[in-house]
Amino acid sequence: MKHTEIAKILSDRKLIGTETTVCGWVRTFRDSASVCFLELADGTSFTKLQVVIDKSAVKFDGECSRLGAAVAVTGELVKAYKGDGVELNATELRLLGKCPLEYPIQKKRTTLEFLRSIPHLRLRTNTFNAVFKVRSVAAQAVHRYFHERGYYYVNTPIITASDCEGAGEMFRVTTASWNAKASSEEEYFKNDFFSQRAGLSVSGQLEGEVAATAFSKIYTFGPSFRAEKSNTTRHLSEFWHIEPEVAFAELPDIIEIAEDMIKYLIRAVMEECPEEMTFFDNFMEKGLKDKLNHVLNSDFAVCEYSEAIDILKKAKADFKFLAEWGADLQTEHEKYLTEQVFKKPVFVTNYPKQIKSFYMKQNADGKTVAATDLLVPGIGEIIGCSEREADYDKLVSAMKERGMNLDSYAQYLDLRRFGSVPHSGFGLGFERFVMYVTGVENIRDVTLFPRWVGNIM
Ligand code: ATP
Ligand code: MN
Questions:
Q1: Whole-prediction pTM value?
Q2: I need a surface site. Which of 52, 124, 205, 327 has the fewest CB within 10 A?
Q3: pLDDT(166) > 80
């Protein structure tokens, strides 16, 4: 269909005075004695286009003025009566698709909870338009950031036989029938599609290391799957994962990269989505833009895990879980550190080895590993990061301590046999980043069709 997108109309002053056709959905309709006003959205811009209809001159189907109706409007673009925008003086309205009264998006501001129950329609609201614009801009910026710096973009397998952490949170991939007969677990998997147990990858890291020890700098940007039953505002069963892996980088190097990347992404979103960010600042998180500007203009804090435990022990806060050296930080601890103590993003470094993964570089103290989590206000962890153990013997002993099957990690171990180098990487949860920059509090509201335990709409 020949038409002009609203984003184009609003940004190109040269179109004023011309005749054009605009297509979109009716967002509001106001009627007065001689004229009526229709706000039209086509999703290409946050701001909608005001259409002015002179009732004595333009006859149109009443269905055209219903909320949610799809219409094509032809008319002359003129300077707005008020302000310095543009509006369309309609000469013809054509109904493309009518929208009956039971259309669920009626009030201007419906709750996010309610909108979660209509994931196929909620994208037509201002909030979701803004969220997905930011998400799209941030995704492009991720690629730009790494591409500009010479990283290879690699795609690691989604179906995998290895469980990155050696933990049991993987979704299984199978074609075996529900009542497949087998006399043992081994036989069951032998008869399955891949002749062994397979699942959806929880992380592309292990394969990322393979690529980084050939190309030096790589990143992945794809989905990861976690079958953990955590019913929280920051966990999904399927999320998008950004995982750079860098050869010849030690922990301080990768920390520098992570901070630089986060700032780059924030800057991109603020520059490319000014209207959306103002909207979030007004309606989602007061002071959001100030918060982000402060982040851009200051260094992230760095704090040793041991120091963090000391701070938490002395804290005058009512924690549900006790902070104790050797225990993992709970979300409440993470939030306290980043929100109350540092008041900005903070890298907590050098965690006890027993609470972290086998592949992390063992520090000289024999007790900690060169790992860091980046914690941000409002969310807690958004990045999990570490220098990887590059020493064959140390890696093998960490795996044995955890009772892991060395045979299934033969390729991974080979990286430590053939030209092993120090290398580091991290995983950023893309949805958590989007939450952080938009102020949206629930991860289910930054994902088209969120999946979590018991829910796959
Ligand atoms: P958490 O402690 O918050 O459950 P994690 O330590 O299990 O996270 P990692 O394995 O370190 O997570 O994954 C790297 C990053 O991926 C995390 O910092 C987070 O941003 C993101 N992430 C992990 N699990 C999820 C999930 N279930 N949903 C959304 N994002 C996730
Ligand atoms: Mn982590």
A1: 0.96
A2: 327
A3: no
